[in-house]
Amino acid sequence: MGRGYPKVTGVLPVGLENATKVIGNVIHTVKEYVMVIQLHDVVNEESLRRAVEYFKGEIYQRPPLRSSVKRTLRKRNVYEIELLEYRDKFALVRVLSDPGTYMRKIAHDIGLILGVGAHMRELRRTRTGPFKEDETLSTMQEVMEAVTLWREKGDERLLRRVVQPVEVSVVHLPKVMVLDTAVDAIAHGANLAAPGVASVTSDVRRGFAVAVFTLKGELVSLGVSQHDAAEIKNMNKGIVVKTKRVYMQPGIYPQAWKRQVSKS
Amino acid sequence: MGLVERGLEFLDHITERAGYKNDWIVVREADTSSDYGRLPYERPIKEHIVNGVINLDKPPGPTSHEVVAWVKKLVGVSKAGHGGTLEPL
């Protein structure tokens, strides 16, 4: 927090109580930022635009000196980058990129390419995976207002808009819906076996993360799929999802004492 | 509308609102009982809070960490965490 610390604002998903367990998984999702870059001298707008667009695609970055991560050269994808505005040494740039892409570094490097030098002045995150600047985005004041309204007046409407169900934080993942009879076993940490599957989304891939839900849409767990969606459709036995993180409390759904017999 | 349809509608709604899409493959026709569990939007307020996330617009100044500590205290929960710091990258 030393000198020249830029103003950083925007989308910061916060998980409450139980939701703390799964909120960390949005770290691995795509990010969008808007930043103000201060150039150290005036440049021609067309050359600035070219310099900005130079960072589209695969870029190499070495983490900054004071960074907590290992300082090895790493590859990151910049999916979209555009100059939104340029006025009097200040450039407004929008970036959509892989997680862990250093915006400050991009700002600095744009200055190097232009030969005038530059640094990041302000940064605003406009998206992290499923969280973006939409009607759910709430300021600190709105959170305070919502809590006060509920506590003092018993009015929970604003609080229900400010606080979203945990399920919104995993919608970017491929999904599996399970039968009522399979829920409690997973809540106890068991893997999901084929007979418990009701439906899957077509993007489920072997070796990749999935979110597991009840038929009512409640989050049960996060896991790693052992098969592609197309294979799961024809499976009657075997493990479909290895459970990695249980969300639902055990005992909410009944324990299926009898082993399920596949009905297909 | 039955519970299954409403559960599906809920998931599709929040997925599309976030800019993603679900293309479902039905593996087994199934129904769900109203005797246990509930639609996420029907959680009583206290249960809703402890299973909730806030899409917070971080103000300039404090660190992500500090902001989370404030929210935790404000809402009155014992734990809170953020999904990726918003310190200058």
TrEMBL record, chain A:
The keyword Isomerase applies. Keywords: Isomerase. One of its GO terms (molecular function) is pseudouridine synthase activity. GO terms for biological process: box H/ACA sno(s)RNA 3'-end processing; mRNA pseudouridine synthesis; rRNA pseudouridine synthesis; snRNA pseudouridine synthesis. Residues 174-248 form the PUA domain. The keyword Isomerase applies. InterPro entries: PsdUridine_synth_cat_dom_sf, PsdUridine_synth_N, PUA, PUA-like_sf, PUA_sf, tRNA_PsdUridine_synth_B_fam, TruB_C, Uncharacterised_CHP00451. Gene3D superfamilies: Pseudouridine synthase, PUA domain. This is Pseudouridylate synthase TruB domain protein. It comes from Thermogladius calderae (strain DSM 22663 / VKM B-2946 / 1633).
UniProtKB/TrEMBL annotation, chain B:
It holds the Pfam family DKCLD. It comes from the Archaea. This is DKCLD domain protein. It comes from Thermogladius calderae (strain DSM 22663 / VKM B-2946 / 1633). Residues 20-68 form the Dyskerin-like domain. Coiled coil: none annotated. InterPro entries: Dyskerin-like, PsdUridine_synth_cat_dom_sf, PUA_sf, tRNA_PsdUridine_synth_B_fam. GO terms for molecular function: pseudouridine synthase activity; RNA binding. One of its GO terms (biological process) is rRNA pseudouridine synthesis.
